[in-house]
Amino acid sequence: MSVASASAAALRSSSGRRCGVGTGLNGGNKFLMMQRRDLLTKGVALSVSSSLLASSTSSDGAAAQALERLPFKADGYSFWTWRGRRIHYVEQGSGQPIVLIHGFGASAFHWRYNIPELAKKYKVYAVDLLGFGWSEKALVEYDATIWMEQVSDFLREVVQSPSVVVGNSLGGFTTLFAATEVPELVRGVVLLNSAGQFGDPNAPPKAEEAAEEEVSAVTRLIVKPLKEAFQRVVLGFLFWQAKQPARVEKVLKSVYKDPSNVDEYLISSITAPTADPNAGEVYYRLMSRFMANQSRYTLDKLLGKLTCPLLLLWGDLDPWVGPAKAARIHEFYANSTVVNLQAGHCPHDEAPEQFNAALLQWLASLEEEAGDKPAEPSLQVV
After folding, report:
1. Closest CA to 22 of 182, 133, 177, 146
2. Dist. CA 216–CA 229, nearest whole Å
3. Is 123 within the bounds of a domain?
4. Is the pLDDT confidence value at 130 over 60?
5. 34-90 pLDDT per residue, tens
6. Which domain holds residue 349?
7. Which residue has the higher pLDDT, 136 or 230?
8. What gap in Å lies between CA 349 and CA 166, rounded to an integer?
9. Most exposed: 41, 223, 347, 374, by fewest CB within 10 Å?
10. How many domains does the chain have?
């Protein structure tokens, strides 16, 4: 889920519903809610039906238990060196490649019920983004391009074949961004309750950059350092709070409509990476810089460059990113399909049986089109 790692969870504490990119290592505080609010658009109720996904959520927990689960390995699976940094990934199966990108604070292990099932027919990769999971906690400047570049290079150097790329929350935004940069390596994009925002057509062009140029010396030398010091204190506390297993469990249960899968496996996969000595600094950089600077790369700009089929698998019951966002993306991008899932922010883990069935059916339709075979009606397009 975009189990918003050490952040979405920590930031989502108090009264408001965190529009976070996940759920994970998070606490709660209005201080950062404003920064994170730009990352996701508010959701409103929307009813989208799909006969394929009519199974009730009350049985999802039992269904997940019946599925094969990716074994949890404390030392990780495979590693790839990217720009001198150690990147963790899981690789299983054979056939056409599928690349899974987790959300904020999560890891490849968040695809635990999806990797074994998808690997029965496809070659599946699940990669940990830099700074998350079992990948290196690099002390770099995290901005909107860093993970896009990582995923693009992963497709070039490791996968080495056109792939379907699937992303949840922050991973969805990263997936979409990468697909516009290396279109020759992406056969299709799947977004699960994706992060990102549409641009404001009424906003003056480059107002943000102009404002930065006019910053006074007093602001640069006094106000900014004081602000950063305050942020470090607040974020340091939030990070400490975010790594507590009880806190992670509480946040996860707030965004999983059916909390059956909020178990020790999931909680451990989120809290274990926080033991890294650099984890606190990475958290600070992510929350104080990356999350506060998203307006430059908007969904409308990225969708305007996208050239491949798009599937929106949306958890309609997500308290952070509602189905209205999926409807808007679908309206903007004609070559898209929307399928609603009766789940929250992380439908692939909360309702894995529904998610696996919907994704496999859509992948089959892509193969039929590529083979010039008449495609039978499958997923409902709205």
Report:
1. 133
2. 19
3. yes
4. yes
5. 333 333 333 322 222 332 333 333 344 555 668 999 999 999 999 999 999 999 999
6. 78-200+294-368
7. 136
8. 13
9. 374
10. 1
